[in-house]
What does this fold into?
Amino acid sequence: MSQLRLRASPPAVPTGLVPRRHLETLLTRSATLPVTLLSAGPGSGKTLSVASWLSGGGFRGGTAWLTVDVTDNDLAAFWADVLGALTVGDVLPTDSALREVLPAAGFGPAQALQVRAGLAELPVPVLLVLDDFQEITDTAVLDS
It folds into this structure.
């Protein structure tokens, strides 16, 4: 779980990072939407901007982070990592049904419904950051 713990933690925000107030305002507004896509060229500061916004209290609720990589192009691996990130982010209550989902045993429509129901039952809003999502190319993962 140590590698997942690294991937499930936002990067440290360096001191002296120039705040992007307009972007932070847009992120705060979009945090109430089901999905927000932050898109810009490589090296433009997307990851650090989101990490800085989160560290500054930009979202009032639970947060979880997952830096996606090519190993997540497998349905079971992707959902195991997402659920692991929610666990590492400490946003799942101890009695959450999401703690019972075991993607490694197989992940299909029934498990997708279980995850959807478990997310809907969370007591506070949760923001899940999927950093480097462009690494996902598998159709089954994208469809899920």
Remarks:
- The longest helix spans residues 75-88.
- Residues 2-143 form one domain.
